[in-house]
Amino acid sequence: MGHTGTDADVIVAGAGPTGLMLACELRLAGADVVVVERLAERTGESRAGGIHSRTLEVLDQRGILDRFLAEGEPQPVGHFSGLYLEFDESESRHPYPLMILQSAVERLLEEWALELGVRIRRSAAVSGIHQDAETVTVALETGGEGGARLRARYLVGCDGGRSTVRKLAGIGFPGTEATMTALIGDVELPDLPEDYVWVRRTPGGDYSAIAFEPGWYRVITSEYDRVADRDEPATFEQLRESLIRVAGTDFGMRAPRWVSRFNDAARQAAEYRRGRVLLAGDAAHIHFPAGGQGLNMGVQDAVNLGWKLASVVAGRAPEELLDSYHAERHPVGERVLHNTRAQAALARPGAATDALREVFGSLMVFDDVNRVLRHMLTALDVRYPVGGDHPMEGRRVFDADLKTDGGVTGVYPLLHAGRPVLLDLRGGGEVAAAAEGWTDRVDLVEARSEDASWPVPPVGEVPAPAALLIRPDGHVAWAADSVGAERAAALRTALTTWFGPARRG
Ligand SMILES: Cc1cc2nc3c(=O)[nH]c(=O)nc-3n(C[C@H](O)[C@H](O)[C@H](O)COP(=O)(O)OP(=O)(O)OC[C@H]3O[C@@H](n4cnc5c(N)ncnc54)[C@H](O)[C@@H]3O)c2cc1C
After folding, report:
1. Do 163 and 306 reside in the same domain of the chain?
2. Is any atom of ligand 1 closer than 6 Å to the C-beta of 158?
3. If 286 and its partner were Cys, which of 91, 161, 178, 187 is the partner (CB 3.0–4.6 Å)?
């Protein structure tokens, strides 16, 4: 039961990576949440193939990263439209893309959700929504059982690129049309030469084969002279014919596990929130999957929204806090659409693109160029507009080593509970005095930084601060190199903005 006689505080539509992560974040912050999922069971479709540094950090912030590392394979490099990107060990504790199938990510997130007490209702597809001043009512199609209704304070559509919630809420999805068609399949390729390297460009398009596990490959073909109908089924035979067209052979392709199709259409929801309905993940943005950013962005949408929505339903923060979700996440989505359009342009066949790739590739050997693209793809450089001009403000916090009375810890273990943390790294009492009235909601931690400087992409190394206010999503709401009256006032403003007014008495 929700806090107000509703069926739940929040209904999450869709048990993909975004919906599951959001449900966990909400639950961790005390909200009662039910996930409704159209399908009767997880599909097991492999889909996305990897997660990037910032998502690995986000999982680390919650203490569940080990589960993913146990099933994934760290990669030595990433890529921008097939051109190699180097990683830098000094920027993150996880400076690598982790190769792990989406099916495994979903299984691990669902396990965590069930541990936290999230209710997941399958065979339940959202088919209608009605909002009033206090609640949102959701009509569900439940297959053989007939329909059902659920009422909650908020509904979040995490129901994928063709989101029913987005359409029912009347939220526009402007963007650019598809210009190509890609087929993808997990298959055996007994005749693939041993010296085969990853992506091959040909005059008719390109193809790639990646060995995910011994015995089978993920094959992708991209062709640029035709855009398939969205509703046309993708078949093994189409994939085989496409591979023969672009590669001249099917490499003995057999035993398909999964075949699907995608394209380079790029669209973004005009509003991430309309009243009591919000959107996250593919429901809010779709784009070419180059560089593997979609699932990552969905998980990060969820981590941005979860604590805010939980605070609002619990009455700890005003409803306006929810507006910061669109303000912070829409620009991030816009930038990803932009970079995937650039990657799609760099992938087209033809002499002009060959030349462009050669020029681009020759620039990417420079560290500065590599760094800009690496930050863009990993989302390590995202800065939210929280106000303030300290270089750490708005940016994600590094998992620096801290010395506390209890021994050495990292910053991320302090975030496992999903609560805000006010880190006092110099002592002296000013920080504690400024935060009086918020200690019921904010964990005040006194510690010393083990390092003189912390990495802050894209700024570089920044001197360890005197104090930091870290939001539950790991972004810095306020930072100070010394805490005088002016910085203490700014701290109180930040505490009020993000965690509601001070408690008196
Ligand atoms: C070929 C390919 C490779 C990719 N590789 C990567 C990669 O390496 N890294 C990366 O980050 N991303 C990658 N992506 C993108 C990634 O797969 C998506 O961004 C990700 O699945 C989005 O997750 P989501 O939870 O938002 O949506 P989805 O995964 O689409 O989940 C939506 C869920 O909602 C359910 N649903 C739909 N309608 C309803 C309804 N009316 N009511 C209730 N439930 C409903 C669906 O059944 C589904 O379970 C790739 C995509 C493709 C196609």
Report:
1. yes
2. yes
3. 161
- Report residue 4's pLDDT band, with 50, 70 and 90 as the boundaries: low
Atom number, ligand 1, closest to the C-alpha of residue 158: 26
Give the CA distances from residue 311 to residues 32, 72, 212, 319, 378, in Å, rounded to whole numbers and listed in that order.
12, 33, 41, 9, 28
From 263, 284, 313, the end of a domain falls on: 263
* 289 ligand 1 Cβ < 6 A: yes
Q: What is the pLDDT of residues 399-423, one digit of tens each?
A: 999 999 999 999 999 999 999 999 9
How large is the greatest C-alpha to C-alpha distance in the chain, in angstroms?
A: 77
Domain co-membership, 272 together with 246? no
Instruction: Give the atom of ligand 1 at the shortest distance from the alpha carbon of 127.
Output: 41
Ligand 1 pocket member 182 (CB < 6 A): no
C-alpha dihedral (323, 310, 468, 330), degrees to nearest 10:
-30
Residue 280 shares a structural domain with residue 192: no
**Does the residue 322 lie in any domain?**
yes
494 and 435 in a common domain: yes
106 lines ligand 1 (CB under 6 A): no
Q: Which CATH number do you get for residue 443?
A: 3.40.30.120
Q: Are residues 77 and 168 in the same domain?
A: yes
Strand partners, 211: 217
| Residue 141, amino acid | E
Does 14 lie in the same domain as 141? Answer: yes
